[in-house]
Batch of 3 targets.
Target 1
Amino acid sequence: MKKILVVGGAGYIGSHMVRMLQENDYTPIVLDDLSGGHKDAVSGAELIIGDLGDPQILNQIFSSHLIFGVMHFASFIQVGESMINPGKYYENTLAKTITLLNKLVEFKIKKFIFSSTAAIFGNPIDQLIDEDHPKNPINPYGKSKLMIESVLDDYSRAYDLESVCLRYFNAAGAEPDGSLGERHSPETHLIPLAIEAATTKVKSLKIFGTDYETKDGTCIRDYIHIKDIAKAHLLALKYLENDGKSLKLNLGNGSGYTVKEVIHAVNKVVGHEVPVEITGRRLGDPAVLVADSKKAANILGWKPNYPNLDEIVTHAYRIYISHQN
């Protein structure tokens, strides 16, 4: 069973990836500093608690394990925070990832999968964003991810380090049985925040701007189920196993939903109205982000298995109830 180092594997997306690797006859080794992850989310996998930018820990891992490839999910994800504290994002996403990449070169590890973001595109000029869409990120979160994509181009040419960058849009949902899901602290994603607001009524859900040029004035996002994201990473790993060359792919459902449409879906699933508070736009938020995933379908054979918004919300609600219990 090939060993895969999953950096950030105790977090939301990384933990689902760890489970999928285990289900597909790989051995995941998890590196996570637990700043946003949870020990119990990687049950059954070896967990090494440490920083991805620590050369000594990386030396220890690569010396003691025959690592076939690396998947990198460790990232701060708050767009607004990146605007007021950009150094945190450039240090983690850029500086520490370069340290990690240099260790891959040193230990002759040739397969790398990078969790990128749709934020590299900035404000889109097309209805559907494909891989050739202009890249003009409007926040340090997106800028730092795009910088690593550029670094990976150079490392592929110079060191034969083959990589797949997966730019996905809004990760959402959970394991359908409610056994694993989202536990951010603080929570910043729309769907779990809406579920919490509808369920507890303790605080209202903030809508950041209702004056965008969209059908109801709120932002449009392409929500993609967490299991579909993990599946794309698995297919990317198999692509590299078969001597695939470096590439960059967009992931998404190909259709977007406004904030108000998400709230309506939560109302239906939870059975209670989401209390809302209208406030101003957040810095760095584009109006629309919707992906064209034809390239991922053609090259990897990937397609979403959970494209329905109500189903995504239902799975997210199950994990919320599970955590409450």
Target 2
Amino acid sequence: MIAITGAAGFIGSNLAHRLSKEGNELLLIDHPLNEKRRANLAGLERFRFSEHLAFLDALNTNEIFPDVIFHLGANSSTTETDWGLLERDNVEYSRRLWNWCSREQKPYIYASSAATYGDGSHGFDDATHPRDLVPLNLYGKSKNEFDKWALSEVAKKGKIPPRWAGMKFFNVYGPREAHKDAMASVVWKAYRQIVSNGEVGLFRSNTPDIKDGEQKRDFVFVEDCIDHMLWLWRNPHGGGLYNSGTGHARTFLDLVRAVFAALNREPRIRFIDMPAEISRQYQNFTQATMTRLRSTGFDKNFTPLEDGVARSVAEIAGREIRASEKRTSGDDRTRRAQ
């Protein structure tokens, strides 16, 4: 049995679908589901669902005994100001799962974040120790605190999970992120804006050294992130923190133009001022150093931005068509009943 926390979320649901297609038995863990998050699990077979606190209880009482835990659940709000909440959800919960995997000698793959790198002044190398990083927000701090704790456990040379990896996800995009709303990727937001009003708004640059729209990110397709996780679970390595990106930064203009191209439309882009609260913690450039993952033997090519965007747009459009047909069918049934 494979356990996935955050299983109805973006990366978690895509991982669940991949593993389900392989025929694996799944235990999916999350908060109680709303309609959008429940839709992310549509089509899955052979899975059980558990609420996230009940999952901890079941582990501790030996009611369940998963072969591996993929811990992708978290409070992912980059604007959260309650440190106690983040410490409980993102640090303490992660520790409890680590301790169980250490005790029972089961692999543990968990979500860290590229937000741990802060403004990038120390680079984006996963070989950099977390104690040398200064995240720009409390979410990034919570992820960094657990990374530091995990490495301290390893340094004690006591019992640790037999195979473990903290995944520093960069700017992930792809299917099944409609539920994220304001936290969704620019691909999803751009699609919605184009469909709604035919244009996309991007932030103006907040520094004279960078032109509007030429801020850069390491945009990584979600299926590539899943490739990284599954490789690190299934293949021997020394354990540690691993970047999950492409190693190639692209501009927001590149990304948005790819969305327009996927919709067969000419680009219409306008620039808007960046809110002060965002500007204070804004990363103008991210680019993952992928040397550590490659050193484990991972040699698969990354999905080109234009290809990943096209696949994402096709999935979003297809899902909206199916939802519309379902609503129409429901309306027809209602009218016939009347």
Target 3
Amino acid sequence: MLHTRHINQGFDRGRMSGLALTTLVMILAAGCGGEKKSQSGGEPVIASTTPVAATDPGRDVGGDVGSLERVAFDYAETAYKEKRYGEAVRMFTTYVDQRPDNRWGHYMLGLSAWKSGDLVSAESAFVRTLEVDPRHLKSLLNLSRVLLEQGQPKAARARVTAALSVDSTSGEAYRLLGRIRNALNQPNEAMAAYRMALSLDPTDTWSMNNLGLILIQQQRYEESLAPLARAVQLDSGMAVFQNNLGIALEHTGRFGLATTAYHAAIAGDSGYTKAVLSLARVDGRTEDTTLMPLDLASLAASFDGEIRTAKVSATVTKKDTVPPER
């Protein structure tokens, strides 16, 4: 599922002209092919065993331009919102050919290409956006994501560091920095970045999930329970969160609670194979009766209090600022 938040920043404005009318005609013609809707791959995030495909907030669309150019842009944006990503790519390609200095056209072309599965074209479009506006925060963040998906974590790190130079209070940027550091095999630095993200946004469930998963990978199962319990408390319908909480509970010997979490994961997504396999794995296992009772709600509340009061300092280091790999 794609999550979008409308933004209020203005688009580059231009006067209505014959060029705008030409743009509109070309875009409308490009959109008449009736292409089958593409499938969204989403954004990879850390998972308990193998990467899980899931989306993460932050791919913004919207804004306004003027006159017929606004109509042309809106047609292309509508194709994007309706997940007709191939059409959106063609329309925005035509749009930026006519308006090469409009950063929002390049930005939306990047999003459309990304969602259509063309990472190379998405990277190129985001780079072009940044040539027009080097401080375009969303392009810096989404270019970081694209580079990460292409297996270029060092290049992604340079871009997310640039994003933090634009907005040092961006929790989204710190969450991305956590993913990048983990991809660079720096788990402790990754956890520090996730905690920084949480200090900026205590409701960031993906940072909680990813923090908990690194702890699981380090076999620190008891420690992983609190952030995962809080993520589930905030979003109980997210199958990935429930499954990961179940794994942490299972590894601490709490098979009853693990079973409940796996059932909740399947309720959230009946086709989530990982949760089905997890449930089968704990079926019939006998729990150690000497274990202390566990109150997940109390653990979640404790974690929430911890991140709201923690004094977390920004930890972007010199090694984070490297030239992009080409």
